[in-house]
Amino acid sequence: MRTNLMAVFRIILPASIDHLGDFIQALSRWLEQEGMAKEKISRVQLAVEEALVNVIRYAYQGGAGEVELRGAVADDQRLTIQIMDRGIPFNVCAVPKPDVRCGIRDRKVGGLGVYLIHRMVDELVYRREGDQNVLTMFINRNLGNLAGPRQDVHAGA
Amino acid sequence: MEIDVRKEGQTVVISLTGRMDAVSAPQFDMTAEELLAQGDRRLIINFETLEYISSAGLQSILALAKRLEPVDGSVVLCNLNGPVKEVFDISGFSFIFNIYDNLEDAKASG
């Protein structure tokens, strides 16, 4: 099964930390237009930032490359976000869960970003497709306050 | 992100406004570095007007706490709310830091 989705939202930029704000701002504007609640947008921003930062820091191993961010809202109002790069294979879903209970001295920072992604989305799928990493996030409407179907303006006629 | 630094006696209150993400967290690292270099050891971070934090922000705060520990310093946090509080709770950071509901309580903690 190919996971590439028909994107309603699509942006491709160099995988550079200088563009992180551009990705997040463009995505947020689109989600606002889709009627997503502010708190939910903040959660999507967090998942997308963490995934993009991984690509920016590690995918191209110091070299240049691009990253593509796609978004679509299905009929059932399930939000799908995809992040694609042509860097080294990196299975986000295989990153071990950090120990979130240990104290300051023993606390490690690695793995925290990926853990946050898992906690912000309802389903996370990684696939290597050809030379691409494709990370797909599914965010359910019922858990996320995405606005429901628009009211019929002709109601009562 | 805006960073406001106020020294009050032996205590430094760092108030953060806006978004603490992978782009802005290094600003915080630089501010923390300067304060440590000046000999400040008792820090309060006020999150009242911080809207967003990602793992980069958490890492900066953890790095500061790790550096303060061997020099008998301390960092306490206050006014966590909304998405910022949620991220602290999920990551377990709520359990490893001293967190106060407001700035007055944080100041009184020392």
Question: Which terms would index this structure?
Answer:
heterodimer; A: alpha+beta; Heat Shock Protein 90; 5-stranded antiparallel beta sheet; 5 strands; globular; B: 110 residues; alpha/beta; Transcription Regulator spoIIAA; 5-stranded mixed beta sheet; 5 helices
Describe this entry's structure for a reader.
The complex is a heterodimer of chains A (157) and B (110). Chain A has a single domain, classed as Histidine kinase-like ATPase, C-terminal domain (Heat Shock Protein 90), CATH 3.30.565. Chain A has 3 helices and 5 strands. The radius of gyration of chain A is 17 Å and the shape is globular. Chain B has 110 residues and is of the alpha/beta class. Chain B has a single domain, classed as STAS domain (Transcription Regulator spoIIAA, 2-Layer Sandwich). Chain B is built from 5 helices and 5 strands; from the N terminus they run ββαβαβααβα. A 5-stranded mixed sheet of chain B has the order 1-2-3-4-5. In chain B, helix 1 packs parallel to helix 2. Chains A and B meet through helix 1, helix 2 and helix 3 of A and helix 2 and helix 3 of B.
